[in-house]
Amino acid sequence: MTDTSLMAAEIAEIAPAVQHCLTRNEGAMAALGEMLRRDAPGHVITVARGSSDHAAHYVGQAISQRLGLAVASVGPSISSVYGARIAAEGALVLAVSQSGQSRDIRHLTEMLGDTGGLTVALTNRADSPLAHGVDHMIDIAAGPEQAVAATKSYVCSVVAGLMLVAHWAQDGALQAALQRLPDALDGALRLDWSAMAAHLEGAERMTLLSRGAGLSVAQEMALKLMETCGIAAQAFSAAEVLHGPSALLRDGARVMLYATEKTGAASIVDTGARLTAQGADVLAMPPQLPALHPLLDPIAHLPAFYKVVEQEARRRGINPDRPAFLQKETDTL
Amino acid sequence: MTDTSLMAAEIAEIAPAVQHCLTRNEGAMAALGEMLRRDAPGHVITVARGSSDHAAHYVGQAISQRLGLAVASVGPSISSVYGARIAAEGALVLAVSQSGQSRDIRHLTEMLGDTGGLTVALTNRADSPLAHGVDHMIDIAAGPEQAVAATKSYVCSVVAGLMLVAHWAQDGALQAALQRLPDALDGALRLDWSAMAAHLEGAERMTLLSRGAGLSVAQEMALKLMETCGIAAQAFSAAEVLHGPSALLRDGARVMLYATEKTGAASIVDTGARLTAQGADVLAMPPQLPALHPLLDPIAHLPAFYKVVEQEARRRGINPDRPAFLQKETDTL
Questions:
Q1: How far apart are CA B323 and CA B166, in angstroms?
Q2: Domain named SIS: which ranges (chains A, B) (predicted)?
Q3: How far apart are CA B41 and CA A90, in angstroms?
Q4: Integer Cα distance of A118 and A109 in angstroms
Q5: What is the pLDDT of residue A1?
Q6: Does B65 sit within 8 Å of A84, measured CB to CB?
Q7: Where are the domains positioned within chain A?
C-alpha cells in the first residue's frame, strides 16, 4: 500500500509541528502562566466543537488535575440559539478552533469576554476573526492542514493547552516531559499496531473505553473512525459504560481499551475483563511507548492510531482525505 | 401484549410521582431559591453518573438559559482516581443520585463542599449517605423504583432541578407551567407513537438528534435504547453531528429527531433534511403535545418514548425489568 494521502503526509508532520509549537510559544506561555498565577481564575469555561472540543476536554482534564479548577464546556448554542448571556467574571475562557472561522465559537467567546472572562484562543490561524477578538491568542503553529480529518492540528491544540497548564502550575516535570514529546510521537509511528488493524477489519461498530485525559483521546478516536472509516464508534468512560451501555457489549461486540497511564489503567482493565466475561471481543492496549508523563502518554500514542485509521479507510475504498458528506470547516448556529 | 412489567407500571406512575414531587418540595425550593438570590453563586458544578448525569445536564441547561451561569459537569474520577482537589468557592454544587449510595458521587460532593461550594443533593433516598453529607437535601419523592431502567426517578430528578431554577430565577411562567406538567405527562402516554415503534423495529443502530435541554433527553433516550433494547444508540447535537458523525448517516441509517420546542427545532429539522438528502432514514418528531414551556416540553414527551421502548424490549424477547449484565445500582471508582 502506498502512502500517498494528504492525511498520511500530515500524520508524518505531527512530531515536527509539535516541536515548532513548543519552540514558538515558550515565551508567550511563560508570560500567560505568570498572569494566571497573579489573577487566579476561580473556574474555567471552554468553547469548541468537534475535534477542537475533544482537545478542549483534554486540556480541561489537565487543568482540573493540576490546577484544581472546575471546567465547564459551554456549547455555542446557549447564545446562538437560546440567546442566553453567561456570566464569566473570574473565569478563564479557553476557545479552541483550528480554523478560527466559526461564527458561533467567536460570538460566544467574545460574549464571555464582555461578561468578565479572560479570553484565550488556541487556533491554527493567527489572522482569523477568533484570534482578533480575544485577550490572548496562541498560534498552535500546526501549519497548513488539508485532509478533512484533523490530525496534527488536534495534537498541536492539546500540546498548546498543556504548555499553558505546565507554565501556569509551574510544573517542572510536565514542562520537561513536553520537550521529549516530539521524540515520543515519532516513536509512536513505529509501534506495531497490527493487532488494532486486525480488530478494525470488517467492523461496523467499535466501542472505546478509557478514563481521564485518555477518554478525550478515545472520543477523538471514535470521531475519526466515524468520519474516516464509516465505523459506528462510541467512546465511554470505563466507569460510565457500566451504567447501561455495557448491555450491548456481548456476543463478539468489538471493544478497544485505551489505557496509557498507570493511574487509570487498573479500572479500565477491570472493566475490560467484565466485558470479556460477558462475551465481548476486547482488544487490550496495543504495544505501548515507554511512559513519558501521565498527562502526555494519551496523546503520544495517537499517531499510531491515526496511521491504522488512514490505512483502514483505504482498505475500505474510502479516500481518507475527502470522506463523503463532510467539509473541513463547518459553520453552524 | 399485556402490560405486566415493573417498567410499564413505573412509567404509569410518572405523572403522580411528579405531582408528589411538586407538592412536597414547594416550600423548600422557595427557601433555597431565596438563599441563592442572596448569596448568588458565580458558577455551578454538577456531580452525577448515568441517567442521573443526563438529568443533571438538563438542569444545567436550564440554569445556563435562565440564570446565565456556566455549568461544569465534574466526573467523580477526578478525585477518586486522579486524587485532585477541586476548588468550589462561590459555586453551587448540584449532586444528582437516585440511590444516594455511590461512594464516588458522595466523596466528590463532600470534597466540593469542603473547598467552599454550597452543596445540594437531588436524591430519591432521603436517608442515604449522600443526603446526610450535603448542605441541602431535596427528596425527589419518586417512590420505590424496581426496574433496572430509571424512568420516574429520572423525570422527578429533572423536575426537582427545574423547580429550583424556577424559584431561584423567580420565573413565574416556568413555575406555572410546572404545575401543568403532570397533566402533560399523562397526555404523552396517550400520544400515538406507533411511527417510532415502526422505526425501532429490527434496528441495530439508532442516531438521535436534538439541541439544548432536548439533547439531554435524547442522551437519556439513547441510554434506554442501549440498556433496555440492545440497540446501539447515540445522541448528538444537531450541530455537532455535522463535525464528523454525519458521515455514517446514509444508506438507510436510522435517525430520529427530537425537536420539541420552536427555538431549537429549526436547526434540528434542517440537519434532518441534510441527512435525508444523503440517504438516511430520518423520523421527524412523532405527534406532539400542545406546547407547555420550552424548558418542559422535552421532558413532557418522555413517557411516550418510554412506553415504546418497554414494548420494543418485549418484542425482542428481553425482560425490560432485568436487562442482562446490568444492575440497578452501580458502584464504581
A1: 36
A2: 32-183
A3: 12
A4: 10
A5: 47
A6: yes
A7: 6-170, 188-315
The answer to whether A76 and A47 are in contact (CB under 8 A) is yes
Considering CB atoms only, which of B211, B324, B330 is closest to A247?
B324
Chain B interface disruption, residue of A321, A325, A330, most B CBs within 10 A: A325
Asked if B329 and A244 touch (Cβ cutoff 8 Å), the reply is: no
Whether the per-residue pLDDT at A330 is higher than 80: the answer is no
CA distances from A251 to A255, A280, A327, B253 (A): 11, 6, 36, 22
Chain A residues touching B43 at Cβ < 8 A: 42-43, 70, 72, 87, 91
Is 80 exceeded by the pLDDT of residue B326? no
Q: Is the pLDDT of residue A215 over 90?
A: yes
Residue B2: pLDDT band with limits 50, 70, 90: low
Please check the confidence at residue A108 and state whether its pLDDT lies above 90: yes
- Inspect the interface and report whether the beta carbons of B332 and A267 lie closer than 8 Å: yes
d(CA B103, CA B76): 9
The residues pairing with B121 across neighbouring beta strands, listed in sequence order, are B95, B137
**Mean per-residue pLDDT over chain A, rounded:** 94
- Tell the residue number behind the cell numbers 468553547, with chain if given: A47
Average pLDDT of chain B? 94
Cβ contacts of A127 within 8 Å, gap of 6 or more: none
Give the pLDDT of residue B1.
47
- Which phi and psi (to 5°) does residue B39 adopt? -105, 70
Query: Of A44, A49, A52, A77, which to mutate for an interface test with B (greatest number of B Cβ within 10 Å)?
Result: A77
* Burial class, A277, CB count within 10 angstroms (exposed 0-12 / middle 13-18 / buried 19+): exposed
CATH for the stretch B188-315? 3.40.50.10490
Q: Which residue has the cell 458521587?
A: B105
| Grid cell listed for A88 | 464569566
Nearest to B81 among A72, A231, A263 (CB): A263
- In this predicted structure, the answer to whether residue B132 has a pLDDT above a threshold of 70 is yes
In this predicted model, which residue has the larger pLDDT, B332 or A117? A117
- Span B6-170: which CATH code? 3.40.50.10490
On whether any CB of chain A is under 8 Å from the CB of B273, the answer is no
User: How large is the average pLDDT for residues A94-106?
Assistant: 94
Taking the C-alpha atoms of residue A173 and residue A260, their distance in angstroms, rounded to an integer, is: 18
- Grid-cell match 479570553, residue found: A119
Task: Summarize the confidence of residues A35-45 as an average pLDDT.
Answer: 97
| Cell numbers 445556563: residue | B64
Tell the residue number behind the cell numbers 438529568, with chain if given.
B55
Selection from B5, B63, B321 nearest residue A84 by Cα: B63
- Chain B residue numbers touching A72 (CB-CB < 8 A): 43, 70-73
Cβ distance A330 to B70 less than 8 Å, yes or no, reads no
In Å, what is the CA distance from B69 to each residue of A176, A298, B107, B118, B272?
37, 32, 24, 15, 30
Model confidence at A263, pLDDT cuts 50, 70, 90, reads confident
Task: Report the complex ipTM.
Answer: 0.95
What is the reported pLDDT for A328? 67
Give every CB contact of residue A273 below 8 A, 6+ residues apart in sequence: none
The yes-or-no answer to whether A6-170 and A188-315 have a common fold is yes
3-state secondary structure A98-130: CCCCCHHHHHHHHHHHHCCCEEEEEECCCCCHH
